[in-house]
Amino acid sequence: MLIAYCDCFSGVSGDMFLGALIDVGVERRELVDMVQSVLPGDEFRLRVRREKRGALCGSRVMVESFSERRRNYKDIREAIDRAELPDWVKSKAARVFLKLAEAEAKIHGIPVEDVHFHELGAVDTIVDVIGVVAGLYLLGVKRLYASLLPMGRGFIECEHGVIPNPSPATLEILRGIPVEGRDTNAELVTPTGAALIATLCSSYGSLPSMVVNRVGYGVGAREEHHPPNLFRLIVGEALRESAVEEDLLLVETTVDDMTPQIFSHLFDDLLSQGALDLWVSPVVMKKNRPGWVISILVQPGLRDVVMELLFSETTTSGVRYYNVKRVSLPRSHSTVKTPWGEIRIKRFCLPDGSTRVYPEYEDCLKAARENKVPFEKVYRSVLAILENEP
Questions:
Q1: Does the record bear RNA-binding in its keywords (predicted)?
Q2: Taking the model in full, what pTM does it have?
């Protein structure tokens, strides 16, 4: 299985990501052809040149725009739907733009459909997003990973004026994704870069086990050399298709004086912040008191967020955490059509090559409630459809 790792040691933007894809060997002409399915060719020109940052050389992408047109989210979504592109490219690109639009809608207090702004509608953003998704498709990458994302500080200027760094849109997009602070006033991660990483990557942390066969560097516009303003894409074959190993944190605390009703609220908050899994175990504590161990499995970068929630929302006075490894079966997602609408499904690949399939609980529950039918009927119907697949 071909996988790729986004090494964001100096941040990531849409043009840097696109430059790295070209640097690993994706043909510029093929990318332009796919972008032109969404954007008329007379509206842009894609230029690529080799540049150095520090001692390293990479590909810098520059988009020349010949259009003054401003597009909103609806315009872009309709253009993607009409485009003659592979379904995977259309689906992923649409999700990236939706993530951008949802972030802008939330921070400006407007409906997603009304989002109409320079950053989303700009020609270069459309080229970057379609180009990156198309590039991954052309490479044949099946799974994408990323390092922790570095965040600057201070203030940055944009079309809306002076705003804090990282930008509000970037932080909104990166909810639940591990980041780390850097002592710099530079904008290291742009909203477009954040949306691409958040939408396309399945895991964050250290480099996954792989046999490396290609490495590409995308050059950023800032001429910084310490560290060099580059984005690195590492492409290779996964060592194991039967399992994916991750370095995670297990955060725990023990309480014996908290009302159980708080657990529901606490779990909702933890999941919204990006917890991967959580559970409560009954224990007998010192002084023979019954209590609970609250356990939360998270990406390493979420440690402080989770500890803050535990201290503020529970009665605990201490939290412990451990480094753990999780081995997961490779999974993929798709949808099936039912009499009650489309239902997402999860497929897990077992070591012997067989698959295990599960309907998505939330989708089945929503369909059952909206159509006033029993949940079991929807769930069993999906399983029956899957059993009859060729």
A1: no
A2: 0.65
In this prediction, residue 336 has a pLDDT band, given cuts at 50, 70 and 90, of confident
What CATH number has the domain bearing residue 258?
Answer: 3.30.70.1380
CA distance 166 to 190: 8
Residue 242: what pLDDT?
Answer: 53
Taking CA atoms, 151 is separated from 111, 172, 174, 242, in Å, by 28, 13, 11, 34
Whether residue 119 is found in the same domain as residue 158 = yes
Task: Please give the full DSSP string across 261-299, using - where no structure is assigned.
Answer: THHHHHHHHHHHTT-SEEEEEEEE-GGG-EEEEEEEEE-
Q: Which of 376, 36, 385, 13 is nearest to 197 (CA)?
A: 13
Of 65-69, 144-148, 212-216, 334-338, the poorest mean pLDDT is in 65-69
CA-nearest of 94, 103, 77, 127 to 191 is: 103
Measured CA to CA, the distance from residue 230 to residue 97 in angstroms comes to 24
